[in-house]
Amino acid sequence: MLQRSAERWVAFGTFRLNRRTGELCRLDGDLSTPVPLGRRALDVLGALTDGGGYLVTKQEIMDAVWPNLTVEENNLTVQISALRRALDGGTEPSCIQTVPGYGYRFALPISVTADEAVPEVESAGAECASSDVRERSPSSGGRRTLLLWGGGAFAAVAVVGGAARLASALWKPRPAPARMSVAVLPFAIEGNDPQLARFADGVAETLMADLPNPYSLGYFSPSLIPPRNIMRAAAATTSDPRVFGTALNVRYVLSGVVRGNGDTVQANAEVTVAETGVLIWSKQFEDAREAALGDPTVMARWIRPEAVPAMISDEAARSLRERPHGMDEMDLVLQAKTWEQKVLSPERAERTRFFYERALELNPRSANTLGNLATTLLVQSYLTGAPPPGGYRAVERLIERGEALQPDAVGVMYSRAALLWFTERWAEAATAFARMLTQYPIANGPESMIAQCYERLGRTEESAVLLRRAARRLPRNSWSSKYLMECSLCMMLLGRFEEAIDWALRSIAMNRENAGKPLARLHLTMASAQALLGRPEEARRSTAEATRAWPYVTVRGYWTGTFGSPRFAEQILRILEGLRLAGLRDHVPEDEDFRVAPNDELAASEFGRTPLAIPGARTIGTTELAAMHAKGPLSVLDVSAPGRSIPGATGLAGAGSGGTFQDKLQPRVEAAVAQRTGGDKAAHVVVTGWNPEHQASANLARRLVAANYTRVLWYRGGQESWQVAGNPVENILPSDW
Questions:
Q1: Pick the CATH number of 182-314 from 3.60.15.10, 2.60.40.10, 3.40.50.10070, 3.40.50.2300
Q2: pTM of the prediction?
Q3: pLDDT tens, position by position, 156-191
Q4: Which CATH number is 323-443 given?
């Protein structure tokens, strides 16, 4: 094996080679000019100069430059030719002499010097390059490896400036890669298509530009991504994600290949762990050729929202392995993000909340964590149907704390807009989401949320424009199916029924695991559109599919929320008329007998068939309730708010959840009702919900009976029967309790 010298500089003729960094310079007086050479050529040069002017066999050079690899001998010949052009300028005799059949020797006198100052490289980009690249420890491969990557990185960055400083900075001892640090390897192409080449460059450039945005990496620091010029420069020397990531001292490498396939363009993207070479995510994306080539940013923004969660999951798993009992703030946020990006459920939302709360204990001044916790509480409210613990005011206080620290933090801005959305302040919510989109234009969600606000406000044409644009940009995964569902609704509101059917079918195809109410809603949208188009058989089939997905569907149940504007109300009523034409039942009669025996047990699910009576409570009908309401104020508790309910009712969404009479919900319900009755357990309390198939209202009645309320009146017919009778209604929002 060749012996490696510990000294730093090797001088020969007018050249100097830095043995540690692979930096090759031509000296002209006091000026040092970088010599651009590929990494393999510089590695060969290192092997020749180590020979000290003696013969170095071909095998020795190849063992040093391509260890553990079988390569053709002509690879060495190519590198020798490149060295001769750079060192000799094409003149003869060459400083690299060939010994036929054996190898090569370096003919110039060689002097080895100790460490000394490096002459300044005159380059506009040098300062930028040196400040942007982290240090890392030399690998076990010794000086051969240093020359391999030092020379390669030097040669590539010489094009963009700062070569000497970059080469030096890359190979000083430096810490381990930062968590969530990532670099983008320019996307390769299959074939020789200039348009595809430009498209591939556009995809990679967009990813390079987007990843430093705080929105991209789950609100983590953008300083963890190398600058674009550094990534491009390093990529000029290798297409190996592991070597590329190691050279730039990052944890992850995002890479891909683009190919044309007739009228479509495909991009295979993947994320590799740079330290181990393990592939943690890969997926193929496809788009129509004309559309894709016209705007490569779209493909990039399909890739990013799926690649980033893979990195977050890997990083979170690593922190559990390395610091299971001593997690810092970032570890805890990573754990929260991992739970957050899974399919929504109350249990997963609770885990997310747990980790955000622990992170806040370590750093109460993290604006993004405050915002993320606020959003998590809103998500829990959505999943459980109950207000957040402490009510919406508790969420507001978290957001206000975040705004006081950093009002433009992405987590804070989103939570503010989401709170306005959940409390149905549509105009304010639209403004808040628009403000966020201005600050973070690569965000995927705000555009669709603004569009939904516009729908409720009667600005349907504006909503359609935004939804179409959002649908084009959204990633192609199951999460985006809900946005396509909104596109379908928007087309129905506009009376564009064929388009509504098309969007509904696309939403169903996007998420094959869709089930329950969301799937039923899509089939009902199609049923209404088909009926209004005069296709009754198709409409009946769609109605049957909706009923199979969710057996509790009714015409009036298609839209149970409030009406944000008169125009929106009129548009919804037209959809309901289509559902009646499709044969869907209008409502559940309030006296419908499902032959369920009266019982005092809490039902586990929110919907299901109820008995005609509840022990300890009295069932009342619409006529009796209307008469009581006309005589004066009543304490009416509605578990199905928000919606259009009995004027003066209080929305107690979530108070009818299942469980036991000894669970945590019971004392909360009792306190909320006591506040509204003045603690008088003999006062009349009317309990209602949506209709006789809404078990939540029966559950609330049972809870009040268990709390010794003696005049519990259960209005079984609910909002549906009240509206069918033509009684006045009022928009009721959920209240804090």
A1: 3.40.50.10070
A2: 0.72
A3: 332 233 333 433 444 444 568 888 899 999 899 988
A4: 1.25.40.10
